[in-house]
Amino acid sequence: MLKVYSDDYFMKQALREAQIAYEEGEVPVGAIVVCGNQIIARAHNKTEHLKDVTAHAEIMALTSASDYLGSKYLNECTLYVTLEPCIMCAGALSWAQLGRIVYGASDDKAGFMRYGKELLHPKTKVEFGIMFNECSSLLKRFFAAKR
């Protein structure tokens, strides 16, 4: 059973966003930003729809959260994302001084951890593997259907 305000609960919300991306033909990555146990931003990949290589779920969620809070700094916030952020997104997360990142599936080819946690703001906490199987499964289904 999911406990409200747990990492599993919030990752499930990010997975809902990833499912929307999947249905829209986008790489199925979803992200939410949580502040004070409240979801303040939801996003999913929109690179195909917007014809914009920077329209990753994390970037879209950061923009929405910053707009909601009226601040470019998100040090009191947690980003839940279904796939390990790439180095572009890690750079944006660093500039936002994000308080915490929680991701589901690892990305051994393009994930930021390949280069080390030093890409993030020094105070940002990182946790991973939350709902790993569910996050990985959606990505695998998507790419299997593309091949």
Average pLDDT figure? 95
Order of helices and strands: HEEHHEHEEH
The general outline is globular
DSSP strand count: 5
Give the distance, in angstroms, between the N- and C-terminal Cα atoms. Answer: 36 Å
Largest sheet properties: 5 strands, mixed
Lateral arrangement of strands in the main beta sheet: 2-1-3-4-5
Q: Kindly name the structural category.
A: alpha/beta
The amount of helix comes to 25-40%
Low-pLDDT ranges: none
Tell me the number of helical segments per DSSP (H or I, 4 or more residues long): 5
Strand content: 15-25%
* Radius of gyration of CA atoms, rounded to a whole number: 14 Å
Keywords:
5 helices, single chain, 147 residues
Report on this model:
The chain has a five-stranded mixed β-sheet with strand order 2-1-3-4-5. The protein is built from five helices and five strands, in the order αββααβαββα. α1 packs parallel to α5 (132-146). The chain is 39% helix and 20% strand.
